Fold:
Amino acid sequence: MFANLKPYLPTAVFALGIFYFGYQAFTGDRGMLTAPRREVALAARQQDLKRLEAERADLETQVRLLSDEGLSRDLLDERAREVLGFTDPNDFIIRRPHAAD
Structure:
C-alpha cells in the first residue's frame, strides 16, 4: 500500500511546506495580519526613544557642567547640598521624581 504512495511523498512534503510558509506569511510574528500591532509597538518605542534622548541630553548637560573644563559652581553647590542633605532654613527645596527605570 505504501509502495503505491511513495512517488507522491515529495509532492506531499512540498505542499505541506507551501501551506506552512503561507500560513506564517499571514499570521506569524511578521505576517501581514499583525502589521497594525507592530505599528502600535513601533510608535510606543519611538516615544520611549524621544524620552530617553531628552533624558540623555539633560544628563550630558549636567556632566558637562560638572566636568573639570567648565565647572558650574551653582550646580556643584546644588549637588553637594542634595547629596549631603545640608540646606538653609530659608532655602526652597523642589524635589523632582526620578524617571522610572
